[in-house]
Specification:
Layout (H helix, E strand, L loop, with lengths): L1 H11 L3 E7 L2 E6 L10 H23 L21 H30 L4 H8 L4 H12 L8 H5 L1 E5 L4 E4 L2 E6 L4 E4 L6 H6 L8
Antiparallel strand pairs: 1-2, 1-3, 3-6, 4-5
Helix pairs in contact: 1-2, 3-4, 3-5
Length: about 200
């Protein structure tokens, strides 16, 4: 659901080149030559977070038409300046690794609770376990292959503009630029193949 609100943020702020998130925690990447709000971090944060929050409020009914909000949602934010694209990609890779770790743990935890263990027992059971052990738990005790779980939960959501193209008029290329559509993807962004397939994202043009 939050990915839909993130799409709205990218449509509103053209200087945002890419966003990655899990649940309601999203990281927004601005073009490195952006002059949005004269690069004042406090203004950028307040504008993006407030727009995300207001969109959340306005679109809530689209997803939960029969469930009213019990209290107004609020989100926080912070700005970090990464000096190179490599460091930025390392950060995004860490976010996706964290997505996998949390999803795997939570899947195991709630399956143990559903099987009859208390929350404390489930926590104790999982304490110190590694990826392989969690995968074996899911497979052997619950018949779940981790890699078969929905990719959105294992990979998180990447939001970015599709590369601009040109329009055709009467079968001929007009040369007129098409406004880039914002899409949501659930790819492995740790692998360089993703960035090679979408080089325009980090071109920061």
């Amino acid at each position: 659901m939050a990915a839909i609100f993130t799409v709205a943020v990218l449509e509103e702020f053209q200087d945002i080149a890419f966003a990655y998130g899990v649940s309601d925690e999203f990281s927004f990447v601005l073009k490195n030559k952006s002059e949005l709000y004269k690069r004042q971090s406090s203004k950028i944060i307040s504008a993006v977070v407030s727009f995300f929050t207001s969109t959340y409020m306005m679109r809530w009914g689209d997803f939960f038409p029969h469930k009213k909000l019990k209290y107004p949602p609020s989100f926080d934010g912070r700005a970090v300046c990464y000096p190179t694209s490599d460091i930025l990609l390392d950060y995004l890779a860490w976010r996706q690794v964290d997505c996998h770790i949390n999803n795997q743990y939570n899947t195991c935890f709630w399956m143990l609770v559903k099987s009859g263990k208390s929350k404390i027992q489930a926590q104790d059971y999982l304490k110190g376990t590694q990826t392989r052990e969690k995968n074996e738990l899911l497979s052997q005790q619950f018949g779940i292959e981790y890699n078969s779980l929905p990719v959105i939960f294992r990979m998180g959501s990447s939001v970015f503009r599709l590369k601009e193209g040109v329009t055709e008029e009467n079968g001929e290329v007009s040369g007129k630029q098409v406004e880039a559509e914002v899409g949501v993807d659930y790819s492995n962004i740790i692998d360089q193949c993703f960035w090679q397939q979408h080089p325009h994202i980090l071109s920061f043009s």
